[in-house]
Design brief:
The chain is of the alpha/beta class. It has eight helices and seven strands. A seven-stranded parallel β-sheet has the order 3-2-1-4-5-6-7, with helices on both faces. The longest helix is centred in the middle third of the chain and has 24 residues. It is globular.
């Protein structure tokens, strides 16, 4: 039976696959029939993801430990993998810091991980023709900065805005090879970025009440949106920032 959402026969590279949205995306892609190549800086976390993938089905999966903030690591990754049909850039960090306390070290770290690593990886994958024609690139961005702002979230917002601009330019330039570029823009998601933040449990409960759906997203819900953008079901969608926010931007 024809299923436009299927990823059977496709090879998908997922960055930040050691946890959170990246892990959920790797699992969802595997469940939809894809061969998944997962990369992350954390070897132990990446191994846990691979074990979960192997429990899903019989497709051969691959894990590559890499620090994508280093150009040589990106070069080695690009050289070591086969051609792919989909690239999902999930790696990201956050730190709450008001503008008056901004510093070069924190800002550079967030920009490197959240934006530049994905940009350079995408550039080199395209330049080396490692993304097949008809392929799809999905960047995990955020409603933060793109659609709304929050106190102390300037570094994260700027990094995601930069990635959004890159996504749209890639959609325009890569169309010549029929390679699509889109993004998924979540609101808050129940990942370690939330659990390890400075917000108290009371703050989180209060914030959830500002959402029409009265809760944060689960990683799997974001992963399902990513699968859509990777699949043939979205074959005429490019340069689009898909909002997945439980109605937060309506408020």
């Amino acid at each position: 039976m024809y299923n436009p959402f299927s990823l059977e026969g496709k090879t998908i590279l997922v960055t930040g696959a050691g946890g959170g949205i990246g892990r959920a995306t790797a699992i969802a892609c595997s469940q939809m029939g894809a061969t998944v190549i997962g990369t992350d800086i954390n070897n132990e976390a990446l191994g846990e993801t691979l074990s979960l993938l192997n429990n899903v089905g019989g497709v051969c999966h691959q894990q590559i430990v890499a620090d994508l903030c280093k150009q040589e690591a990106i070069d080695e990754l690009v050289a070591s993998i086969p051609n792919i049909d989909g690239l999902v850039c999930c790696a990201g960090i956050s730190k709450i810091l008001p503008i008056q306390f901004l510093n070069e070290d924190d800002f550079n770290k967030i920009m490197n991980i959240n934006a530049f690593a994905s940009m350079y990886l995408t550039q080199k994958m395209y330049k080396k023709k490692k993304i097949n024609k008809g392929g799809s690139i999905v960047f995990v961005e955020s409603i933060s900065g793109v659609k709304m702002v929050s106190m102390g979230g300037v570094m994260y917002a700027v990094s995601k805005n930069a990635l959004d601009a890159f996504m749209r330019n890639a959609a325009l330039e890569f169309a010549a090879r029929n390679i699509r570029s889109n993004s998924v823009n979540p609101s808050r998601v129940n990942t370690n970025l939330i659990k390890n933040s400075s917000y108290s449990e009371e703050d989180v409960e209060k914030d959830m009440k500002t959402y029409p759906l009265k809760r944060y997203a689960e990683p799997e819900e974001i992963a399902n949106s990513i699968v859509f953008l990777l699949s043939d079901a979205s074959s005429y969608v490019t340069g689009h920032a898909l909002i997945v926010d439980g109605g937060k931007t309506l408020m």
